[in-house]
Amino acid sequence: MQASLQRANPLFLSDRELRKAMELLFFAYRDFTEEPDAILAEYGFGRAHHRVIYFVGANEGMSVSELLSILKITKQSLSRVLGQLLNEAFIEQVTDTEDRRRRLLFLTEKGRELENVLSERQTKRIAKAYREAGVEAVAGFSAVLRGIIGEEDKKRFFDNE
Amino acid sequence: MQASLQRANPLFLSDRELRKAMELLFFAYRDFTEEPDAILAEYGFGRAHHRVIYFVGANEGMSVSELLSILKITKQSLSRVLGQLLNEAFIEQVTDTEDRRRRLLFLTEKGRELENVLSERQTKRIAKAYREAGVEAVAGFSAVLRGIIGEEDKKRFFDNE
DNA sequence: GCATATATGTCAATAATCCTGACATAAATT
DNA sequence: AATTTATGTCAGGATTATTGACATATATGC
Fold it and tell me: Residue A86 and which of A128, A144, A146, B25 are 20 to 30 A apart at CA?
């Protein structure tokens, strides 16, 4: 497809263009997780630990089942990861006073510190990308990612915006 | 100083805004790989097989070592995955006539078909997101992802554009 | 109050995936 | 001829995920 036709019909998306987007996502996601992965390895943790720390930090007081439904993993898988984080005091559980079956999750001071270190690397990377791309690019970035996210996740996490 | 003000930066990007970007990337990448993962599972394949099929399809005739350096995994890891794809005739190897040590990789007809099915799901998802977000958003999306990608990968895969 | 459902946790077996390390072969390069 | 490069393989082990079964405490509906 020639450039002239692309200009004439900007919504025509070439296969090449779409595949380039796939590669961009692949490399961006890999490089985005590279630094935190290296830090986590020093603690004997993996990416799953990061996700738990991140989401608990972003939703203090969430329940175990809420966390499970965000992560979409089995409770047995979460058990190992969460168990380590509890044992090593990065996360603490508090029985919900309103429903004593539920265990609400919180970051400890130590957990918050690790969360800060990990997020700092990633937010710095994003901030750099935002600065380089310009403010107007940020809206496009967000809009396209939202379009890629499935309806279910979008409703649950990004609807109130 | 409050946490939200700690990470000062020239564009006044709030901590909340940057964290939202992290979540968007997480959910987008997960949902983006969900459909292909389900298809691959029917063949007894995983995401690693997808990556091999994708990159060989996008770079027909590439060598094993080139593939290894793109994927950043060990040759032992690739061996299992590539061995399966060779055994089941999704990929074929041809000895390079110019350097008979090298084995050039190609998709077979069968491999190309699978590649098409997998990519179709993902390109449809991206095309939908592009259409919804509008042309100007696509440029922003690409620009920010490029900024997130590390220098090394950017030079190797996106420099000539 | 009793039966049922929910939230959480745990034990066991299994499978997938990736890793390190060692070694082997063929072919190219110096 | 010696060395390096490209590829492949075997062996062992670590990690992470899965399914399935079961246990406990608590809440809820009737």
Answer: B25
